[in-house]
């Protein structure tokens, strides 16, 4: 059921008033005088709002300067099925945000130990952020595009916006997806993919692989079989470079659609500028036998979805975003409009084109846009998913080695844990058929620390700026870090460091890490993994002892959130034959809280039987492995004898989908 919210939050901005609601707010009248604050945050993403809330909680003044009119970035812009990896590694205000989401749906209080919810409708996410802003008294300026930055030596002294407003602060945070403030402040950055050789990586640069790939040959030419006729839209004529080669291409963008099958849904509109040629490649793919899926339909609540790219030809507008990271505002608006036209046209094509099989049209037309989301834009999300734009170059560049755990920063300000994930970057012709290039999906073994040095510029470039979103990371490492919870985590840490720098009157690069670490821990940030749990006993699928199997189990790292080096699955075969038992060696008899872990995906079984063998007998639980991945899911508290008499058995009888076995945890109750 949808959560409907009507309360309004009034935020004071100097002498102006800004009313923030779940709908698009009206712009305030801007005063001519400069706005001054201890911290100026540029970018009204969820990260920017969290940075502002943290500064206010530390007793400092702050202002958020948002170039557009949408607040919350992707968190409120359709990405309601949170890409999170190991959810237990999300602390601080980010963790509080997801607990507040749960409380909003359930009408419960928010405490440090209350449940979290990582799936939500966009308007609920917006309401939660509105609450945080209102409670902290954060002023927000909308429609304030950056025009210039003034510096004195290595310090920013003020930024001006196109509407004539001036903002002055002691410290600044660039929380935008594009890194515009970082750029105008003279900080070094890069765009595109590094060669594997630059940082000693293995999956950076060009990557011609098998994910979101054509699984049957499709002719790429305007006239099939005739290279002289030219290529269909979006297909590159350049030969594909060897894997690991550097280039300036950027992984594809799209909109995270919120869809519904509600009877009152808005049908997919046919956009102005609709061009059937954009979908000829997909039509040929369907003619060759491809029947879908064409987009994801992951549920977020209220009968709605967070629908993302899925398959060789889907919502990603591959190869059409290369200019976006460094473009001016007008050019970016044009690129956003092109993406919107393409994706709206795609949905209309799938639902209406008479050349398509009726099942494809019927299945697509059963979905539509909700009437109670994004009401100012006809149900269409206002935020383009800018997966990657500029990335800072600084003293510490996060790389694949950090993600894999072979390098470990000694000054962590947060944890990341999602798969090293890049969407496709180009379409190419290989052997006379079209292929996608650039998709990488490689799991990480555990949450890994992100260095403080990766969110601050080189000291010679700027000493009062922090960059928690466009941080210093290689393309493939950024693919793991670039998740909304992590951006919020890093933004809170950035604001904390900014306040400590003000207090000590030092550049951000000279903030003492012990003091920063102490304050971050005080405020609930998680900085190292695994966090200590007194007396816990974990049996991992990769353990040398304590794991027995029947049937065939396949090891995998394809989906992030696993404990240890990997997880196992039953291949969705041999149901009832495949079984896996975890047997702990408990040091003492007594009561233990038992939790199970798995990696979640929509192809998992929702009805997995799990037997807990304890001193009182056997208790069977049923778990849904389509959700709650990357976290310890409680099975209950049971009494066990010392030693190895107890166990947890994962069965596959009558399961519908892949069954995963990852790890079991026993904690003395």
From TrEMBL:
GO MF annotation list: 4 iron, 4 sulfur cluster binding; lyase activity; metal ion binding; oxidoreductase activity
This protein's record includes keyword Manganese: no
Arranged from A to Z, the UniProt key words for this protein are: 4Fe-4S, Iron, Iron-sulfur, Lyase, Metal-binding, Oxidoreductase, Signal
Residues in Golvesin/Xly CBD-like domain copies = 537-667
Which residues belong to the signal peptide in this entry?
1-31
* PANTHER family linked: COB--COM HETERODISULFIDE REDUCTASE IRON-SULFUR SUBUNIT A (PTHR43498:SF1), FERREDOXIN:COB-COM HETERODISULFIDE REDUCTASE SUBUNIT A (PTHR43498)
- This chain's protein is named Xanthan lyase
The organism is Actinoplanes auranticolor
């Amino acid at each position: 059921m949808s959560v409907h919210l009507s309360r309004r939050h009034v935020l004071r901005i100097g002498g102006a008033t800004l009313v923030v609601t779940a709908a698009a707010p009206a712009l305030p009248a801007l005063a001519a005088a400069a706005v001054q604050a201890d911290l100026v945050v540029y970018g009204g993403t969820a990260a920017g709002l969290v940075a502002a809330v943290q500064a206010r909680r530390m007793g400092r003044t702050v202002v958020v300067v948002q170039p557009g009119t949408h607040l919350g970035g992707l968190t409120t812009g359709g990405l309601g099925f949170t890409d999170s990896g190991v959810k237990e590694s999300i602390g601080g205000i980010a963790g509080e945000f997801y607990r507040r989401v749960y409380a909003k749906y359930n009408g419960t209080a928010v405490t440090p130990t209350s449940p979290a919810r990582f799936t939500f409708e966009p308007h609920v996410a917006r309401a939660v952020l509105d609450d945080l802003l209102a409670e902290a008294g954060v002023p927000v300026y909308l429609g304030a595009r950056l025009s210039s930055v003034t510096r004195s030596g290595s310090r920013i002294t003020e930024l001006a916006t196109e509407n004539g407003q001036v903002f002055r602060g002691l410290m600044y945070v660039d929380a935008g997806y594009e890194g515009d403030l970082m750029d105008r402040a003279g900080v070094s950055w890069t765009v595109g993919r590094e060669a594997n050789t630059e940082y000693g990586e293995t999956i950076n640069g060009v990557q011609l692989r098998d994910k979101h790939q054509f699984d049957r040959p499709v002719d790429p030419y305007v006239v099939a079989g005739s290279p002289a006729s030219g290529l269909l839209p979006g297909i590159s004529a350049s030969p594909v470079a060897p894997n690991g080669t550097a280039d300036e291409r950027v992984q594809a963008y799209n909109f995270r659609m919120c869809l519904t099958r509600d009877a009152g849904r808005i049908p997919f509109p046919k956009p102005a500028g609709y061009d059937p040629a954009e979908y000829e490649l997909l039509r040929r793919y369907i003619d060759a036998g491809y029947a879908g899926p064409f987009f994801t339909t992951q549920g977020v609540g209220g009968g709605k979805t967070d629908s993302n790219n899925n398959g060789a030809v889907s919502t990603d507008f591959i190869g059409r975003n290369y200019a976006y990271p460094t473009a001016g505002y007008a050019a970016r608006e044009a690129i956003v409009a092109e993406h919107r036209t393409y994706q709206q046209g795609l949905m209309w094509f799938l639902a209406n084109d008479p050349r398509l099989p009726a099942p494809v049209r019927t299945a697509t037309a059963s979905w539509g846009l909700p009437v109670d989301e994004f009401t100012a834009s006809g149900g269409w999300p206002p935020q383009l998913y800018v997966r990657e734009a500029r990335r800072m170059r600084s003293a510490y560049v996060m790389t694949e080695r950090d993600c894999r755990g072979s390098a470990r920063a000694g000054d962590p300000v947060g944890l990341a844990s999602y798969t090293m994930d890049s969407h496709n970057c180009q379409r190419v012709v290989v052997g006379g058929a079209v292929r996608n290039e650039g998709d990488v999906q490689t799991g990480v073994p555990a949450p890994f620390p992100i260095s403080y040095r990766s969110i601050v510029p080189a000291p010679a470039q700027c000493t009062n700026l922090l960059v928690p979103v466009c941080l210093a990371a290689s393309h493939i490492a950024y693919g793991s870090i670039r998740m909304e919870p992590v951006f919020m985590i890093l933004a809170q840490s950035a604001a904390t460091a900014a306040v400590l720098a003000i207090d000590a009157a030092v550049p951000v690069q000279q903030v003492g890490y012990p003091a920063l670490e102490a304050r971050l821990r005080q405020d609930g940030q998680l900085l190292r993994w695994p966090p200590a749990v007194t007396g816990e006993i974990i049996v991992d699928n990769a353990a040398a002892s304590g794991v027995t199997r029947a049937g065939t189990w396949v090891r995998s790292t394809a989906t992030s959130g696993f404990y240890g080096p990997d997880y196992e699955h039953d291949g969705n075969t041999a149901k009832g034959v495949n079984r896996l038992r975890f047997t702990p060696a408990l040091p003492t008899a007594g009561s233990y809280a038992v939790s199970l872990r798995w990696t979640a995906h929509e192809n998992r079984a929702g009805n997995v039987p799990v037997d807990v063998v304890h001193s009182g007998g056997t208790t069977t639980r049923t778990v849904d492995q389509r959700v709650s991945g990357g976290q310890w899911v409680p099975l209950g508290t049971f009494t066990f004898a010392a030693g190895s008499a107890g166990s947890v058995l994962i069965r596959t009888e009558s399961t519908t989908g892949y069954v995963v076995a990852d790890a079991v945890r026993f904690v003395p109750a």
